[in-house]
Amino acid sequence: MIIEQRTYTLRPGTVHQFLALYEAEGLEVQSSALGNLVGYFITETGELNRVVQLWGFSTFEDRLLRRKELSSSDAWRAFLAKAGSFVAEQRTELLTPAPFSPIR
């Protein structure tokens, strides 16, 4: 398994608006395409105004296929058109489990 960690830095004061929009219009579309939402978090300390998504994929190829499906979705593109103004920065990391990780 690989975990894709996506961290979005949002404009100050927009976290709750972004979360409401994502829950209403983005979550179902993204979950249908990507499949395995491991977790969705907001920061409380450190660098604020961030949301972190963790998505699980069986292989890198599985991730590529699922991301391609998502990017071809009209509903996803409509969500991005609304949500894009909230995002100041995005960072994506692919993580693989250590031998002793409970998530394998």
Automatic annotation (TrEMBL):
Record-stated family: Belongs to the NipSnap family.
> Upper lineage ranks?
Bacteria, Pseudomonadati, Pseudomonadota, Betaproteobacteria, Burkholderiales
Q: Which residues form the NIPSNAP domain?
A: 4-102
Which species does the entry assign this protein to? Answer: Paraburkholderia phytofirmans OLGA172
Protein's name according to its UniProt entry: NIPSNAP domain containing protein
